[in-house]
Queue: 3 jobs
Job 1
Amino acid sequence: MSSDSLKSMFYQAVESRKSIRQFSPQMPDTQVLERILTAALHAPSGKNLQNWRFFVCTGAKRDQYLKYSQKSWLGIKDALQKKLKPSLYEFTERFFFTLGDAPVLIFCYSQNSEDERYHTSIGSVYMAVQNINLACQVEGLGCCTMGAPLEIQKEVDQFLGLNDREDYRAGNLELLCAVAMGYPKHDPPKAPRKLEDRIHWLS
Ligand SMILES: Cc1cc2nc3c(=O)[nH]c(=O)nc-3n(C[C@H](O)[C@H](O)[C@H](O)COP(=O)(O)O)c2cc1C
């Protein structure tokens, strides 16, 4: 492939990506999910610690999470009611109750050491999450990165059975976000980008 077509495919993937919040219940093939997760593992990480940990829920485990998602809504609904217009508020509420029927949920954790948490650990996980977003895009899947599970962080930890892990008991595993994923069932408009005051050139 010429470097020009690679370049145009890359920018097309980046610019056409958008958060998807309604999914077909069709489960993506395991090989597709493995490619997406492998893309996550290719992200850069501070000191190459590769300190991301992903917990992938499908089937019954994914279904069981819905009641937790509904609970996380309670933590943020008042703030959102003030910010969002009613139709968007209702759409968001429905998303929290159903997760858009996404067949796959990926909980993304950082395995921190005390002195690395801000310097490298957290940022590295988000680099990997962006690779997941872009890999979904080129695979024809959609996804939505969600900070909402942080509202019920401890309960999510328990739901995933992290108490059985030594690194969790040592206080080193930290939930950063979840990603709902599947084949898109809607085509929302692209969220507008703000350009002013975002980039500052100095010379
Ligand atoms: C760290 C982070 C947390 C987010 N949390 C949520 C969330 O809890 N629920 C949700 O519906 N979308 C969530 N989003 C998606 C954003 O709302 C979305 O990326 C933004 O509105 C821009 O839209 P786009 O992704 O379609 O470009 C989150 C995105 C990021 C990066």
Job 2
Amino acid sequence: MSERSPKVLLHTCCSPCASASTLRLIKDNYTVTLFFSNSNIFPEEEYNKRLMNARKLANILNVPLLEDIYDHDSWRLWIRGFESEPERGKRCEKCFHFNLQKTWQKAKDLNIPFFTTTLTISPYKISPVILQIGRQFPGFLAYNFKKEDGYKKSIELSHQWDLYRQKYCGCEYSMNGEHKV
Ligand code: SF4
């Protein structure tokens, strides 16, 4: 692999968020592998729907997609005690930590030197909080994908490629929230 094109593992929360984020990383000369690791999503049918669309995006962009196991029980244990926190609160911080730690571990196992996450593209999420958690792990690239109209581009690409855009963030506690993608 050329030094000018280092590898990065991109935690992919969903296909719309990954669309513009992946293009941004490619533009910055990274070689991108997508990593779908989202045990926070509930129910499993919804998880599968988002995963299918991540596969679709990987095909469109011609990038590899790695799929983590779905383990919602472990995620529930991890956030225990924070179930009734509001969106953008402590439960979400723990949730980000859960998925970023898994991505960091996967990158380490595969000798991929860098990793980052699509989570920062959403206007419903606070980028500095996500970046602060990511920086706890070596190799984290602190991309704020909201910048350079990232979110707007993700919406346009989702329409163009007919990607599924969910109506809630992911977990059962967010199903009646205001969050969309
Ligand atoms: S609302 Fe979203 S970020 Fe927050 S805990 Fe649920 S799935 Fe995770």
Job 3
Amino acid sequence: MREFSCRCGQVVYFENNSCGNCGRQLAFDPVALTMVAEETAGSGLSFCMNRSSASECNWLADTSFGDSPCLSCQTNRTIPNLSRQKSRNRWRKLDSAKRRMLADVLGLGLPVDPTRLRFDFKEDKRINPDAIEEFVSTGHLSGVITINAAEADPVFRESMRKHMNEAYRTLLGHLRHESGHYFFNIVVGQSLIDEARLLFGDERQDYAAALQRHYRTGASAAWQGNFISHYASSHPMEDWAECWGHYLHVRAVLDVASAKGFISDVGPENWLSKFVEFSVSLNEVTRSLGLPDAYPFIQTDPVTAKIKFVHKAIQQYQSSQSPHNKTPQEFVTER
Ligand SMILES: [Zn+2]
Ligand SMILES: [Zn+2]
Ligand SMILES: [Zn+2]
């Protein structure tokens, strides 16, 4: 995510729908991948129809004709029942995290086709007695990413984090991880599948049995040398999705840190080590405020190789999509 600013010069966040300095209406343009500000009050940007809904979507609509949903809102298949304030708050947080993840993948030139990639944000009876399902679990199946809407509640999420013995649990982390399941076939394809299996293992092994084993016996003590998280050790596809999610974390942090001038000279050879170096500084900053580590992970050599493979697979996809432009998108080194 790069740095955005309003016409008046004020730096604005990706989530802003108006400028705190001059009051102009703002929107994110998912084609140009930038924030746009109206020229003068009411100058007619075509906002997404959900701008005034509970999700407070701040993207531009997909067409300039009338009320229409933006690209992100077209991917919504199920949203929480909006009759309750709590549910409306959940949708706002879920959708905001989803828009950030979609902006990540659009920025990498990856396809977001709302007929293939869809989202179910579902509540279950644990948080809403009126919900239909007893138990919703977060996951991906055939292009549908399901997120248990309770994950938007900080108390629920923190108790799950402790229960699952995780170092990090956020809505954005869930969405980045799940998007990895969706994009695996798109970026790895036949040409890189052998290399993927060498690094992650054979993704065809029985998924249900592997997950059952993981939840019954836990990760082996040796997971820390080879995996970014204990969950990554449960199945090759989970290892891939974890590394994909971390790759998106790395890219997002490098983009913003470069744009803000915190790091420089990020290039094809040093991007991951630049990130690791910066993440330690970031942790020092949050520790100095009495907060937990911003990036509580250790990237060992095997993990580094896997995250670099995610980069390679995305680069190969980028080159295959732009035959006249053989240079895949590289890193931002200056503003
Ligand atoms: Zn402004
Ligand atoms: Zn929208
Ligand atoms: Zn997964």
